Amino acid sequence: MIRRLCIIGVGLIGGSLARALRAAGEVEEIVGASRDAAHLQKAVDLGVIDRYETDLSAAVAGADMVFVSVPLGAMRTVFEAIKGSLDTGAVVTDAGSAKGSVVEDVQSVFASVPAWFVPGHPIAGTEESGVEASVAELYRGRRVILTPLPETRVEATLRVRSMWEATGAVVREMDVKHHDEILAATSHLPHLLAFTLVESLARMSEKREIFEYAAGGFRDFTRIASSDPVMWRDICLANRDAVLDLLHHFGKDLDVLASAIRNRDEKSILQLFQDAKAARDMFAG
Amino acid sequence: MIRRLCIIGVGLIGGSLARALRAAGEVEEIVGASRDAAHLQKAVDLGVIDRYETDLSAAVAGADMVFVSVPLGAMRTVFEAIKGSLDTGAVVTDAGSAKGSVVEDVQSVFASVPAWFVPGHPIAGTEESGVEASVAELYRGRRVILTPLPETRVEATLRVRSMWEATGAVVREMDVKHHDEILAATSHLPHLLAFTLVESLARMSEKREIFEYAAGGFRDFTRIASSDPVMWRDICLANRDAVLDLLHHFGKDLDVLASAIRNRDEKSILQLFQDAKAARDMFAG
């Protein structure tokens, strides 16, 4: 049971956590925090949070759990703002889509990784955003990855794990680097491909006539290109090494396919498509 | 009104056309044809076709409309099989996802492009296939592109147009090359990206652990990688030039993004993502 949860950044992710914990009866009071009072008031009106603070150090005072769900580029500023105001015994966790950069930010602000910080990542975003889109069921059956460090207190990890389990999520632990590689592959690279494809096609066709002939497959394929540009810029930069590595490998794989098509190598093309279909049908099964 | 429609290749596309025309009361008799009697019997059992022939020349005899919906790699064989058996006054159209290669096939079999042939392409596939997946509503509101040639009789194009309009589709006419370029961009390239991505990831992770952490966006993005491998191999080869051209340009665009990430060029990355989101939100509006 959380006595007072402070959510810094009350959007889809923070708002859905609030709703889920409230629905589960696992939290007494929820304080929202950000710089945007109008936005926070909307979250109060929607019943997502109980009250809000626009001063982050006031917001975290007295909280036993602090959840930071802001774009990766804003993490460091948040840690600077809450430094010195956290209660003894408070646990801090986050929702950043890359973990290496958040750990670096925490480390640089607090000189070392504090025992009360548990890096986390709920894998449950959609291309929607904002507290208006938040729902209590967002995390049900979804994966939440925690990447505790050697410095992290076991009890802190357990408290964060139990918070997520109360939302219906399935919690996994892994190390920071493995997380960042997996997410680069299954989330960051696909987003970059979708953004790049849509932008290329938009440039090809001034009048957008081209999109008139896009069928359902294209609509699904490019849905993630409607995601928040600032959030994704931050992710690219925060997970730069893993993303660049995957872009490089993907580019090479695409070259292999182009060569096979150029050489009319029917067998290799078919093999690639069959392997892809088998893998896709298995995981989506 | 079609007196006798012969559908060569009774899968999702052919089966859905049959169902739609039947529902609209626009056809008297539907004859299915392919080499697979068991499959055709299933189409009879499902009420999609009235009867079938496994001999293509027998199948087209007496038909006033012939619809060829087989993989692009099988088109030429079909035209060879029906040559000499078509009724005077019969109109032939097809459903190939690339039009240049079909026109070449017809030309090489009939020495020139016959006045009764109307190249066509209903843009309405899904990653499903087979007559079991066919539905009368598949074409409602969807685009069907016809690419009549200078040799094509106007009356033949009008009859094919009117057949498609009876299914609820919106018919557009354009030239062969323009069709093939548009489809390479909005359909062929996205499929190649999805196939390549899934196959790359499957190779990266022997145990497929990586897919456990794929969220909804990834599922949508890769849905088209479940499409029929043979059909897509044929499309790559049939629309080879346009596909290679787009793969080349897309590779360059991806290099530009990689450079921006490497140089931490926040402004360019954000601009690209914002442009993509704006274009995507507009066409998917």
Structure description:
Two copies of one chain form a homodimer. In chain A, 51% of the residues lie in helices and 13% in strands. With 285 residues, chain A is an alpha/beta fold. In chain A, strands 3-2-1-4-5-6 form a six-stranded parallel beta sheet. Chain A has two domains: 173 residues, 3-Layer(aba) Sandwich (Rossmann fold), CATH 3.40.50.720; 107 residues, 6-phosphogluconate dehydrogenase C-terminal fold. Chain A is built from eleven helices and nine strands. In chain A, helix 7 crosses helix 10.
Topology:
Two copies of one chain form a homodimer.
Chain A lengths: L1 E7 L3 H12 L3 E7 L3 H9 L5 E3 L2 H5 L4 E4 L6 H8 L8 E4 L5 H11 L6 E2 L1 E3 L20 E4 L7 H12 L4 E4 L2 H29 L11 H7 L6 H10 L1 H23 L3 H19 L1
Parallel strand pairs in A: 1-2, 1-4, 2-3, 4-5, 5-6, 8-9
Antiparallel strand pairs in A: 7-8
- Low-confidence runs of at least 5 consecutive residues of chain A: none
Sequence of secondary-structure elements of chain A: EHEHEHEHEHEEEHEHHHHH
Q: Which word captures the global form of chain A? A: globular
CATH superfamily of the largest domain in chain A: NAD(P)-binding Rossmann-like Domain
Strand content of chain A: 5-15%
Quote the distance from N terminus to C terminus of chain A: 36 Å
CATH topology of the largest domain in chain A: Rossmann fold
Main sheet makeup of chain A: 6 strands, parallel
- Average pLDDT of chain A works out at 94
Biggest interface and its residues per chain?
A-B, 88 and 87 residues
CATH architecture of the largest domain in chain A: 3-Layer(aba) Sandwich
Count of helix runs of chain A: 11
